[in-house]
Amino acid sequence: MLLNSLAKVLRTKARRWPGVAALLAGVMLTGCVTSQGPILGDARAILGERIMVHAFAPAKGGSREHGVGVFEWSGSRYLRRSGPANFTDFTVHPYEGRDLIIQSRVGRTGSLTQYGLARRIADGVYLIIPMNEQDADEGTRNRFCTKTEDASCRVTTPEQLFVLARAAAAKDEEDGSGIAVVLAAPKR
Hints:
The protein has about 190 residues and is α+β, with helices and mostly antiparallel strands. Helices cover about 20% and strands about 35% of the residues. The strands form two sheets. The chain has an eight-stranded antiparallel β-barrel with strand order 2-3-4-5-6-7-8-11.
């Protein structure tokens, strides 16, 4: 749904939307993990106070689409200062090893929250891994995903999210993954 929308934006409209946010890129695929609102709290500005994110969409025909977005820490989350209007804000949370969990509120009202992983591959460089219900086995999906009319995998607790994050992190594929390069943004 909304996750598919960003994947399409990254593939086809990055030139028209120069503020594409790479940290959110990986969570925009079919079978995404969502919640009705943010379920992870205690966010910190672990990427910096004001950041510029260079987004590189999954390679297609040997090249990657590129977009840039600027985000500023509000004290509780990163707010979009330039970029697509359907990204209202996001938080990044330490997870296991070199992975971070991305929790992004999307849509015009910001009522839907989507999740993905950012795997640090170098200083300021992250591989964005979609958090997809299909990464988990059927038993895990049945136990931890709630299917609704508008979602194939709705979670309500951090425990559910962490189980599905482990399944996504165990995946060793880079297909559909984006790259995010995070730099300090110049002050206004």
